[in-house]
Each structure stands twice: as C-alpha cells, then as structure tokens.
Specification:
The chain is an alpha+beta fold. Helices cover 49% and strands 6% of the residues. The protein contains 77 helices and 28 strands. The strands form 11 sheets. Strands 22-21-23-24-25-28 form a 6-stranded antiparallel sheet. Strands 3-2-4 form a 3-stranded antiparallel sheet. The chain has a 3-stranded antiparallel sheet with strand order 17-16-20. The protein is flat, with a radius of gyration of 46 Å. The two termini are 51 Å apart.
Length: 1891
Amino acid sequence: MAAAAAAAGGGPQPPQPELPAPGLALDKAATAAHLKAALSRPDNRAGAEELQALLERVLSAERPLAAAADSEEAAAAGGGGGPGAAEEEALEWCKCLLAGGGGYDEFCAAVRAYDPAALCGLVWTANFVAYRCRTCGISPCMSLCAECFHQGDHTGHDFNMFRSQAGGACDCGDSNVMRESGFCKRHQIKSSSNIPCVPKDLLMMSEFVLPRFIFCLIQYLREGYNEPADVPSEKDLNKVLQLLEPQISFLEDLTKMGGAMRSVLTQVLTNQQNYKDLTSGLGENSCAKKSHEKYLIALKSSGLTYPEDKLVYGIQEPSAGTSTLAVQGFAGATGTLGQLDSSDEEDQDGSQGLGKRKRVKLSSSTKDQSIMDVLKHKSFLEELLFWTIKYEFPQKMVTFLLNMLPDQEYKVAFTKTFVQHYAFIMKTLKKSHESDTMSNRIVHISVQLFSNEELARQVTEECQLLDIMVTVLLYMMESCLIKSELQDEENSLHVVVNCGEALLKNNTYWPLVSDFINILSHQSVAKRFLEDHGLLVTWMNFVSFFQGMNLNKRELNEHVEFESQTYYAAFAAELEACAQPMWGLLSHCKVRETQEYTKNVVRYCIEALQDWFDAINFVDEPAPNQVTFHLPLHRYYAMFLSKAVKCQELDLDSVLPDQEMLMKLMIHPLQIQASLAEIHSNMWVRNGLQIKGQAMTYVQSHFCNSMIDPDIYLLQVCASRLDPDYFISSVFERFKVVDLLTMASQHQNTVLDAEHERSMLEGALTFLVILLSLRLHLGMSDDEILRAEMVAQLCMNDRTHSSLLDLIPENPNPKSGIIPGSYSFESVLSAVADFKAPVFEPGGSMQQGMYTPKAEVWDQEFDPVMVILRTVYRRDVQSAMDRYTAFLKQSGKFPGNPWPPYKKRTPLHPSYKGLMRLLHCKTLHIVLFTLLYKILMDHQNLSEHVLCMVLYLIELGLENSADEESDEEASVCGPERCHDSWFPGSNLVSNMRHFINYVRVRVPETAPEVKRDSSASTSSDSLSSLHNSGTAQVFSLVAERRKKFQEIINRSNSEANQVVRPKTSSKWSAPGSALQLTTAILEIKESILSLLIKLHHKLSGKQNSYYPPWLDDLEILIQPEIPKYSHGDGITAVERILLKAALQSRMNKRIIEEICRKVTPPVPPKKITAAEKKTLDKEERRQKARERQQKLLAEFASRQKSFMETAMDVDSPENDIPMEIATAEPQVSEAVYDCVICGQSGPSSEDRPTGLVVLLQASSVLGQCRDNVEPKKLPISEEEQIYPWDTCAAVHDVRLSLLQRYFKDSSCLLAVSIGWEGGVYVQTCGHTLHIDCHKSYMESLRNDQVLQGFSVDKGEFTCPLCRQFANSVLPCYPGNNVENNLWQRPSNKSIQDLIKEVEELQGRPGAFPVSISSETNLSKEMESVMKDIKNTTQKKYRDYSKTPGSPDNDFLFMYSVARTNLELELIHRGGNLCSGGASTAGKRSCLNQLFLVLALHMRLYSIDSEYNPWSKLTQLVEEMNSQLGNEEQPEVPILYHDVTSLLLIQILMMPQPLRKDHFTCIVKVLFTLLYTQALAALSIKCNEEDRSAWKQTGALKKNTCDAEKSYEVLLSFVISELSKGKLYHEEGTQECAMVSPIAWSPESMEKYLQDFCLPFLRITSLLQHHLFGEDLPSCQEEEEFSVLSSCLGLLPTFYQTEHPFISASCLDWPVPAFDIISQWCSEINSFTERHAEQGKALLIQESRWKLPHLLQLPENYNTIFQYYHRKTCSVCTKVPKDPAVCLVCGTFVCLKGLCCKQQSYCECVLHSQNCGAGTGIFLLINASVIIIIRGHRFCLWGSVYLDAHGEEDRDLRRGKPLYICKERYKVLEQQWISHTFDHINKRWGPHYNGL
C-alpha cells in the first residue's frame, strides 16, 4: 500500500506546464488569487484544469495513513516533514484557495454575513446540559440549548433541565418540533427576506475545492480500514480517526459558517456526477484504483453487495416463493452472502439454526433481500455515512453530519441515506464492542431525523421506512432465538428470544426500537402501518418471538445453584420492543373512524395466537410448575379490544373468537395470577430471589399497565363470555385449592402442602375479588382511573410529588395524552390530597414536602382492592390498612380494628355485563357456603382474610343481582338443574335462603366425621344425581369443570372426540397415599343466611347478638345507605350484608327474622385429643415465654428512657459537673460517677479512674468570624471574589507574625492565643465510664467484624449508652464537689495579700493533690488524653514557635485549647451572655475536667519567675533600661499582651482546685491592664486636637480623690505618657486612615471602653461559671457590662446605680495607678522609637467579632449551576466532572478530580483540612446536594435547594427549578457552628482521601 501511495503522490511530480512547481510553494495567496481570477472568466476551462491539477498535487502530496503504516518508505518518497506536516500543508492550501487569495478569517466573516439562520441547530454530545419544555414542544423529544432557553420566555411552563444521554441538537426555530411562541429572541425573526443574495464569486472557489477535499477524506477512510479476518481492533480505527481529526474539524468549522456555506456543502455532498467522476477508480491513477478496490472489499465483507457486481459474486436470484431467510442461510452451500453476516460467530451453528429459523414468515422475499443486503452509493454523502458506520460512529463525524441539518435539502437527502443504510447500521451495532456508545450516537442522529413528522412521512412513502425498520428488527432478533420449552418441551415448534444473549442483556436493540416508537408517534406513519396487512403479519411474528420468553420452572428439590438475572432483560424487552410500539399504535385509534385498524390488528393477533397454541402443542391443561410472565400477543389483543369498546364503539362480540379459543386464551394469564400467589406463598423459594423480583416487576408501576392490567382485562373478557361454573372451577383448580373446599374437617390435598393451602386460598379469593371489582378497562374514564391510582398510592404512604408521578402508571407512549404533570394530574392531586410542607426537626432527618390523603378520601374513596393490585411489597397493604385504622380512630368513626371497607364501583360498560354471571353461578355459591361453614366450625387453614373476601364476594353478588327477582322464582325449568341439587337456581339472592341438610363428603378414615360404619363409599366423581334436598349433596369442582369443558367443546366443534385428549395425567386420579378415603354423610341444616347470623354471634362472642335493625326502624329499608355501616369490622360487614339481602327480597327478610327467633343452641365444647392437647400446651408455653420477654423488654426500655431523660435533658439548667450530686449529706462527699459499661457507681480514684466520653475535634469555626456585618455571598460571576483577609484567623495570624518579628519568641508565645484555626474543641454526651472498662470495650469493637461507620483504630467509638460518636475519654479528677462551698466563702483579705498568695502558689511546682512523680493510672490517663488532644489537630496548627519543639509551644497550645472551648461556647450562646442560665448549648460541659487536665500539664512547665507576667502586673520594677543593653530581642510589652490569654495562663498555673478569692484577685489585676489597653487604643483612634483637649481636662482632675477611677484622668495620663515616645508622631501620613469622623462625646467614649472590655468579661464569667458552678445572671444587652462585672466581683458591693454607669468604677489598682501605667507605657515608647507604625497597629486590637456564618446563597439554584458547571479547574483548565464549591470560603474544587491530587489526597479532602481543619462543607454543583467531610469520614447531608413541591432533586434528575430553603440552610449552619455533624448525621463512610 505504501508503495502505491508513493508512486501516486510522492515520486517526481509529472511536469505541469501551467504552473512551475517552486512558485507554488512560494505564495499560496497569490496562487489562489490568480486561480480565482482565472475561474471568474466566462471561459474558465483552463482555470478549472489548472486548479484540478493543483488540488491533485496538494491533496495527495502525502498519504498520512500509509506513512503511519510504513513511515520510512513513505518519508523517503514524499520528502521531509513527516505525515503531520503534509497534512497541515494541505489544510493551509485549502483554506487559502477557499478564501481566493484573501485572509481566511475575513473570508469566514464574509460568509457569515449571509447566514439566514432561522434555526439554531447547535449540536451537543453526551452529558451536555440542555432544556426541554413540554408546554412548547410538539414532539416529545424537543430540546433547547441553555442559551436559547434562557433567551426565550418560558415562565410558568412545564420545563426541566436534563443531562443529555446520547447527545442532541437544539430545536429552536424549528416549527415542526416546537411552537413558535417558545423560540428565543435570535430565532424568532424569519430572517430570510432581509439577507442579501450571496455574491457568486464569494463561494466559487469552495465549489471547486470541496469535492476534492471530501474525496480525499473518503480515500483516507478507505485506506485506513483494513478488513482483517477478525473484527478490526478498536486501536487501529482510533488511530485513523486521530489522524483525520484536523480534516473533520475543518469541515465542522465550515458548517458553522452558516447557511450559505452549508448549501455549498450540500451541493457537494449530494451531487452524483461529482462522485461518479472522482470515485469510479477507472482512471490511470493506481492509487484511486486501489482505494476503490478496498471500498468494494469493505462492502463485501459487511455482507453487502454492489448491485452491479451481483453476478461477479455468484449470487442466485431467489425464486419469488421461498422465504428469504431460507435462501440466505440454508439453501445449501451456494456461495451466497453467507448467513446474515459472515463475521458473526454466533450464527455459524447451522444445525440449531434450522430449528431456529424454520417458522419465520416474512412479508415478501424480494423486498427483504434488497433491504438487508444491497447498498449502492451514488454520492459522497452516502459513502461518508457508510464509513461513519464502519468506524462505529466517531463523535466528530456525527457532529459534522448533524451540523449540516439546518439545511433543508441536506436534511431530506441525509434522512434517505440513513434509511438506506439502516440494515447495515444494525449489523455493525450487533458486532460492536462498544455497543453502548454506538447506540447513543445512532440515536443522537436518528432522533433528529425521525421526530419530524413531515420528514418521517416522506421517507415512509419514498423509501419504505416501515418495511425496512420492521424487517431489520426481525432480522436482529433472529440471531438469538432458541426453542421454547413452554408446555411441550420435546415437540414445541415455537422459538423465543434467549434473554441471556448480549443482544437482550445489554439492550443492544434499544436504538432501533426507539426509532420505531418515534416514527409510530406520527399519525400519518402509524396509519400506513395499521393499513398494511403484510407489515402487521411481520410485526406479529416479531412480537411472537417474545411470547413465552424467560420461562421459569419451579425447583422442587434443590435450591437453584445459579440465580439468573435474565429477567431484567426480558421485562425490558417486552416493555420496549412490544408494549411501547403497541401504545404508540393505540394512541392513533381513538375515534370511531379508526375501527378498521383495530379489526386488522385483532385479526392478525388472533392468527398469531392460534399459531402459537399450535406450535406449543397446547390443548387444554397448562404444563405444571411452569410460568412465563411474558405474553405480549395476549396483551396486544387485550389492549386493542379495550380500545375498540372504549373509543371506537365496536361491538365486542364481533371481534371475539369462538369459545374454544377463549378457553385457551384465559389459561396463561390465569396461570400467571396463580403463580403470583404461589410465589407469595413461598412455593418458589428454591428458585431464589429472582422469582420474587419477577413477581414484583410484573405489578410495578412502570410495567403494570402493559402487563398485569391487560392480563386481568383479558380474563375479565373471557369470564364474561365463558360458562361461569367452568370459569370459577378453573380458578380454584389453577390455585390448587380444590381439595380444600370440602365440608369435612380433614382432607387431603394432592397438589399442595398443607402449609401453603391457606395463602393459596386467600390468593384465589383475592383474585376473584379483583377480577370482579376492577373497572380499569370496563368503563372508567381516564380521569377516574387517574384518581383511583392516585388514591391507592397515597393510601399506602404519604408521597412526594415526584414519587407520585413515578408511581402512577401512564401510557408509556409520550403522545398518549396523559402526560405526567399535566393539567389533570395536578387538579386530581389537589382534589384528593393535602400538601404537608417539609418539616425540620433540628436533630432529625430532613423531611421532604409530602402529599397526604384528605379525610374525605379515607372516608369514601379508600379502595383496598386497588391497593392490593398496585402493591409491589405486601407490607404496603398492611401500611394502608394501618393508616385507615388510624384515620377511623382519630375521626372517631370506629374505635376497633376495621376490616377493609366495601367500595361502590363504577357501573360496568354494557359489553361486559356477562362478568357478573360469575357471582350468580352455583359453583361459586357452593364454594362460599362451604367456606362459611368451615369458618364457623373452626377448620384449619382459614383466616380472617378468607372470611373477609367471602363476605366481599357475597356483597358484590347482592349489589349486582339481576333486577328484582320474583319470590315465586322457584319453578325453574327442569333440565337446567339436572346436574346438581345443592341450590335451586343461580341467583345469589334466592340461593342465600336455601337450606342444605345433608352433604356427602370424602374424608380420611381418621377424620372425626367417620361415625360407625358410614354409608357405602361412592366415588366422588360419579355424581349421584339425587334430586330432593333431603338427600346428601355431593360436589366436585374438577368433575364440574371437565364436564363443562366437554359441553363447550362439543358445542363449538362437532368432531369433539378428536380435540379432547383422554386425561392420562395422574394428577386427578385418586392419590395412592397411605390415607384411605371413605365417604361420610354430614348433617348440615344451614343456609347461607343462617351461617351469616351464626358468624355474627361468633364474631361478637355473644349469643343472639344479631337483631334485625328494621324491626325497630322501618326507615332503614327505605333509605339503606347508612353511614354507620360503611366502616367497621366483620360484625359490621355481616350486618350490612344481611340488610342488603333483606332489602332485595321479602322472603329473605322473613327468613332472617325467623332464624333470629329461634334461640341458637350454645356451641358444644370441643373434645380435645391428646395430640391436640400437646400442641395446645406448646402454644401456651410459647405464649407465656413471649409475655415474659415483652415484660423484660418493656422494663429495659423504661429504664433506658428515664436514663435518657436525665442524661439528655436539654432545657433544664444543669449543674456544671455531669454527675449525680448527692445532695442529702451536707458533709464533704466525693463525686459519684456511674459507669455505663459495667453499671457500677462510685468515685473516681487514682487506681481506677473514671472518665467522660468525649469527642475531640479540630475546628476552624472561630477563625471564620468577621468584623463586618455585611454577609459574604457565594460568588456567581467572575467579578465576585472572596478574600479571607478580614477573618478572625487571618487577623490573629498577622498579629502573631508581627510580634515574632520584633520580640523574643518565647515571650511572643505567651502574648497571644492560637487555635482560631485548627483549635481543639472538646464535647461530651455527659456519660462516664471506668477507663479500664473502656479499654475492654474498644477491644471488643476491634474484634467486631461488622462494618462500622467509624475507625476503631483511630480510637473512635460510640457511647455505649446513647450511641453518640466519640473518640477519647477525659479522666475525671478525684475530688469532692461540695468543697466548692468552702472555696467560695468571701475572705476579708486585702488585695495585696491575695496577690502575694497567688504569686507563691504559682511558684510552688508540685502543688497538685496528685503527685505527678508517682506513675498512677490516673496520671497515665491524663497524659494519654493530652496526647489525643495534641493529635487531634495538624502540626501546622500547633507549632508556631521559631524553634521547633520548644516547650513554649506546648504551653501556648494548652492554654489555647481552653480558650477555644470558652470562645466556642460563647458563640453557641449567640456571642453574649445576656440569656444567662446554665450552658445553653444544651450539652453537658466538660470544661471543668478539661481545665484540670490542662492545669496538670501546664504546671509541668513552670514559668521562670523573672518572665512571669504576674510580677509585671503587680509590682513596679526599678531599673528598666538595663535589659535593653543586651542585643537579644526585647520581651513583648505588657500592653501588647492578650489579656484573656494572660487570664488563662495565670489560672492554669495555679494549683487546682482554685480558691474563689484567688480567682477574683487575678481578674481584678488583669482588668486594670485591659482598661489601660482600652485607653491607649482610644487615644490612637482620635485626632491630635481631641488628644490635647483630653490631656488638659484630665490633668486638671488628677488630684481628686478617686482620680484612679476616672477615665478622663487616666486617659489624659496615658496620652501624656505615650506622647513621650513616637507613637503619635506619624500623624501626617496616616491622618485620614486612622481618624474616625465622629466627634467623641463622653457617652461614645464610655461605650468604646465598655465594648473593648466586654469580650474579656464574657470569657471570664463563663470560666467562673464552669470552675465554681455559679449560675450566670441574665440581663438586657445594654446592661451586660455592669451585670457581668458585679458577678465577677469587680464592682464594689456598695456601688450605687443611679447615675449612668461608668466602667472605670470597676478598677481596683493593686499598686498606684499612675506609676504602673507609666511603667507599661515606657515599654511601648522604647519600641516605637524604631517602629512607630507597627507599634500603633499592635495597640489597636479588633475585639468585636461578629458570629461566624456560611456564605449567603442565591435564591434560585440555576444561578449557581449555570456559573459553576462550566467553570474550569484552575490546575488543568478543563471543566471538572464533579465540580464542588466550599460553603465556608467559596473556593471552587474538583471532587475526586485527579488533576488536583496532591500526595494521594484529592482536592476536597485537602481543602477540608486547610479551610476547616478537617471539616469541609461542599455543595456538589451537578447534584445540588451538600457533602460533609469530617476527618477521614464523609456523609451526604442533603440539599438546601428544594423544588416547588418541597422536594430535593438529587443529581438534578428531574431538572425542575430549585429554590433555597432558608430553614434547611439555617440547620446546616447551626450544625457547623455547634460541631454536631457527627451526632446528627447517621450515614458516614470512609472517603480514603479520594474526594
């Protein structure tokens, strides 16, 4: 090949006289211009030749594929540059030539100007987000791109957003597919009129260049395709496609230039002459020849021929009569086209093939031959499509072909070409490895073509589209047929599809079927289909392939080894390939004029069914233990019948077949109903779970109206036309309960185990009830059906709007009119249901908006029959009954356990009146009588459910009796009742009162009925026809049925003997079992009425409980609808029935009265045999055991409940220590703890310490506080960005690094707190346990194999009592708790003495009650918990010192842990302490214990007394300047210290427990420092004039008595002291920035000072509350300062409150104020000598932080979605597959994105560590849900965006507009702030760093 290419294109160029070769290369533009000029002349032949030669040269300069195959040779031949370069070169040439010498871009712009685009036509590929508006769509497949959608006006329309599965194109502007009102602004204008005509010369060059270019592309495609022995490998094809990428993209760009260029392309692609000239391959060019040969080979290998070459390949024309298939595959070894497709391996098994294909009838052979095997290409377009298919629809080619569609001429040509290649597409699809992708691409194309009715009609008429589709589908299915094993396994001639084959399992047929459904939705096309008899025959043939597929055989011995899951494939195939086309056809048979169509379908349906019965050798009995759920032929027949009666006014009898056929028709649907009951009775349990799956799928909402509904309807039709006795006995025989229906107390069932009898009997009766009550196809209107379906679903459970839409079966065909969400749906919904808005339990799960039935629906419309029919799970029936019961209790209608209510039915359509004969046939009456008797006599295997159904049937019979029967009806003509004399007639009303005296039964000899020598044994089959009622009645259902069958057959068939085979089946012969049957005669003497009255007594448990109501109140008979009877239990039902019976006939009324007059004798006590006694004892013992167990459980539950109440008490103020406090003894007692594992209580001791269950977690919530009120919004455009510089964490970071720049490191680390980011938060559930118990508990968790949601190895566990998540245990310090009282006595020592004591205590190292040196269990635990606390957060959040590992670091970390926990508690209280009380967070606080642990560890690091800030606060130091001589950095000036940090350091350095007066002393001292800081900060805030003014005023008052407590004096002193340094000097530059515009009044200054001090007071009060257990006072916000300061003991007790409160009055200076202030200020002055700027910045501390919040989200989700789902990743600049955004800081991240992965951590996990110290809250853009990452676990939290019905839309599946739910967002934020994600969300899983 390479050689050929070289010869053609490489080698020395043949001399071209017109153009010297070198000139060519020099200047493309010039050449192009020259050629364009030449071609514009009138006589342009010379120019044309010149251009041809040039193109010949340029376009075949290099064959890239040859080069790829064999590069050296090609490179040698073609010269340098390699294949890529030559390609580029060729493209460059083309661009230049098209532009005719101008610039290519200008050319593009010029062409675009002539674009008359009235259509959008934007093509997209899979996963693109598009919109569909049902209000504007004409075709259900209509779709719009986002841009057109947002530009159009769709407010209030029914639209949704969806992710394209297969790709699509925008229909905006196409009025065939959508209404014009929905067009967007760009495509509304019909613009063709005002666009000027395209100048001839603009596109002239294109017309010459493009044919060559496209031909060149085709040659590449031909050459790249090697037809090897096996299927070409994916790799080769992809390689070729990659090389062609630029060419195809070039074509694609051309299509985007608009209409003008598209019409040129259309000309080129469809022009047959061009194609012929270029491709015939007859020229001297060897390369072209070669390529033509490859093309022919490719055609041939695809099993296709070129028509002219037929003879070459030796094909014999098939003679017209034979079936195509026979000729094709099996006419011997003629070298025909092989089978369907020679490369199809599956087809090679010819032997089996014969059986497979024998019976396929095809409409006409010549037509098929051409459809399947002949392809002739006449234009570029056709061959391009051929290669597109060959290469399995490469995306680029598909997009190019679709981009051309806005050109109308092209659209028609392309559609025809597509249809012509249809068979070939099917073959390629079958062989494809990537059938999924290929299916999507096929549908991407076909949906654009076939959704257009006009086009579909045209192609149907001109190209036999329907023939082609049906034939292709038929062929496709033929490849996977197997012999059917239904009925007669050996001799069956029927073939069915094999559901295990890939073709069905992978839904490979889907694209073809979906096209077929699509074209059938067009009326004009469907009509052609329904008129064409040949097509209908072929189609029924196709449908019969599915009839009886996936046959189940009941396993009787072993459990099946391998559960096949083929049933999915089978149900999907029947729904998609059979039912959906059926619904499509039905939607066009709505009016009377379409009667003919229905008749056609019904006729061919019956023929196909008849063929089927013949093929499976079916006579009259179905084979036992087999069931198939797939009877599409039956269902076609049923649905067309239903349509005929309902819409077309056809007479039902005119389309029904004879009786014999009806008998056959009913067998298989009835078999399914019986099998359903068997499956639910667990008789198929050995077949595995999949059989249950089939039973559920059969009734499931998407399948039911194509499966169970037609089946039941067909049975209703058969029942209404067949003999009722025959039908009823068939039912009981199918359900295998014939033997149970005997009066005898014991019987023997030959076909059913005793344990299944009861549920099968229930099944049979329930089936009869459904059959007789269901009116879905028997007269209900569409709206009534919708209402009934909706009520049934709502009664089972409250439903969300979307689940209702999903659960209510709609016709699968979208055009059928009942569109989900349509007007009628909404109106019915609002009529029957109330909307319950979504509720939010703060700790509970997220509720969705639900619909719940209105009260009147429960009262009047609840229909148990419909519920039973529609439930997939049996428990739903129970659920509906429970809800019904609850409603009756609540509304006071009925207190007890009600029975399902009896509901009035819609009247029957006259055609089906016969159905009611079932209720009036003796067989049914005998069954009902027998069952009532058995229930009354307490025979086994009968349940309340059976009784309920029996009564239901009786009531149905009374409701539907013939018109008023005369009481003298007794004289029924003789012959009618010769066969039995149980009942005189067939009317239920009169039979009810008929007394039956004796009955002869067959019973086992052991039965109690066998008294003495019973009368001679007569076989039950030989009917003793004794006429008078006095003698005994015998009854056998089976015999009945046989006889009826015989009669029916004889009637319809004179040669009956040929039809009915003699029964050889042993099933019905007397069983040869151990038990001998004998006949006994029972004395009964009851009628149905008397049995009912006795039942009433039995149910009510009282003798003579029934009293006819009409005796007291005659009104009842006149106006029978009495509400009191409509709800109730069995007693009510019996009363209702008796009342109806009395109403219907005077006789009945009289007899009821008579029976009631006779006092019923008491029921004799039963004699109990020994065996029975034994079982009774067993039962009794079991019952007792059960009761004992219940009692124990209840006791346990109540204990747990009381525990929970004490433990979880949220509202009542708690004592700070989470323990039971022994209040009784006033003497000192130790705290007692309960261990929740071993249950013992006792104090915590050194050796056996107790601990609190705690959860430690790192938190950055504090760091998210901001200082401005304006909430941050989530960015939704490029302009909006979020900068984190104003967060609390950032501010603190800056401060620390500034200090570290200028001051000594160790001193810096004492001047601030860390933990704003990554601080450790400790919370507890309040339960305690022994630490050794906890260790063994952890051990057991470790060995537990169950998958937990947490990691035991990381120390995680759940509290053994309340199951709250935890990961550590905090040891409780042994000690007493009443001690507090001793410490809290106010002492009268002066503050100076206390200061000294504090100092001494701090200096004493081991002043802890526990000596640290001795290693006790307690101290070990203290250390281990400290280690846990350290490990909770990352190293970067712990290490701030410049020298790593310095002890100062640990010191800083420890007191910061205390700070973090206090600050967070403050935030949980809303940022202030106004509410007071105990810990409002509602959690038991563990701060007390935490403090003890921290204090213990802090005392390990004693601070050098020289550095201890305490001395600086309380003593005057003499010589300051000596330190400064040293070269090391100075210490941090005390005014730059963070006062709260100092407080914690001082307190944690003290021996614990602390004395209250020491605490107060420390607070007082620190408050003086804080106040001075406030004054200094204030002095910087104001300007020079203010400062000097204050300096003056204050100085005047300096000598007054309380000068030290006046802020004016102090302020003026601070100013004068600081003026000595350079602090105020830089005024000039910074003026505007620093000065606040407000003038300072005394009030505003006071407020500033108070605000500055408040945060410290709040934290201190909290601390005091935790350490000493004092309650916090509550107060108004304005008085918070004074209340807290008096609570802390800062305010002198005698302080009067009449004049406005002055903060300075709280000051209590330990040393003279002015001295110490001047000492503090001098430190600052010495620093500001050098760094005035920084000195100023450090003095102003921002202390007023607002509460932390998540970002504010926009109202409508679409705004987020549109911005983020297209946003590119900053790392790889691609659009991520799963974009997410952090709701804390707004960062855009890729979920699971590999591009952003760092050291095996994906981006979300990394971000959660950096932003939230391990907690991340992300909104997943494509799913609208929020995901929480907490450490190594994650959970889906739910969505904060809900649709109009209050529902989430996870994954945006429904695509309805979503709106923010503020309450939910608040809940999320609350959980974030309170750190309760772990407790509230239950479903956690590990993320393995992969998110």
